[in-house]
From TrEMBL:
The keyword Transcription applies. This is DNA-binding transcriptional regulator, GntR family. SMART domains: FCD, HTH_GNTR. GO terms for molecular function: DNA binding; DNA-binding transcription factor activity. InterPro entries: GntR_C, TF_FadR/GntR_C, Tscrpt_reg_HTH_GntR, WH-like_DNA-bd_sf, WH_DNA-bd_sf. PANTHER family: TRANSCRIPTIONAL REGULATOR, GNTR FAMILY (PTHR43537), TRANSCRIPTIONAL REGULATORY PROTEIN (PTHR43537:SF49). Pfam families: FCD (PF07729), GntR (PF00392).
Length: 224
């Protein structure tokens, strides 16, 4: 999946925040960022606006834009809620998915399994995102799908980071196959459980995840 220049810039800024090159509470200097990335202020402004929407940065009137803070406990709680939303989407999709939606899900699954995609965690992330979007759509519950997409967007930088962990991409791909089969065969409970585990497995390996995150001002705060 081809990414726009603004998307690439947003991803780079996300990594700077997650890896501690931009610290929680730090003010974002648009001019300095433009010089750093060799671009004008316009794409910087567009990328930062997207980061505001995702919750990674916040705007303080008359003061500027700052890297946001969130406790580790809050992040874990968000992953728990994400798992429940994903599970519900999977259960409803197994019951309600239409033929065209199933084919779209199958196509997304195959793109995730492309060796070239699997070799690049970021490429895999965006194909993975489309796989999950297909499930949200197939739930035929617009409110649920919207909530899932919004929370997924807030968790995006952390989920991208987790794909850097050893074997995570290959394990994720195997989990996708199980999820697809459950939805394809109408196994509601299995689809729900597999999707919960797909998200929460990241939680059970949270110590590995935390070891990757460099943006700790102290042991209880990290960038959001």
């Amino acid at each position: 999946m081809k990414r726009s220049n603004t998307q690439k810039l947003k991803d780079a800024l996300e990594e700077d925040i997650i890896n501690g090159r931009l610290l929680p509470g730090e003010k974002l200097d648009h001019d300095a960022l433009a010089r750093q990335y060799g671009v004008s202020r316009t794409p910087i402004r567009e990328a930062v606006q997207q980061l505001v929407v995702s919750g990674l940065v916040n705007v303080q009137p008359k003061r500027g834009t700052f890297v946001a803070k969130m406790s580790l406990d809050q992040l874990i709680e968000m992953f728990e809620v994400m798992a429940e939303l994903e599970g519900m989407c999977g259960r409803l999709a197994a019951r309600r998915i239409q033929a065209a939606e199933l084919e779209a899900l199958r196509a997304a699954l195959l793109r995730c399994e492309d060796p070239e995609v699997m070799a690049e965690p970021d490429d895999y992330y965006y194909e993975n995102e489309e796989f999950h979007n297909c499930i949200y759509t197939a739930s035929h519950n617009q409110f649920l799908a919207t909530e899932a997409r919004q929370l997924k967007q807030r968790l995006k930088p952390y989920r991208r980071l987790q794909l850097q962990a050893r074997n995570r991409v290959s394990n994720s791909s195997e989990e996708h196959r199980k999820i697809f089969r459950a939805i394809e065969t109408g196994q509601e409970r299995e689809a729900e459980q597999y999707l919960k585990e797909h998200v929460l497995i990241q939680g059970t390996r949270f110590s590995d995840f935390v070891s990757q995150v460099k943006a700790f001002g102290n042991s209880s705060q990290l960038a959001s």
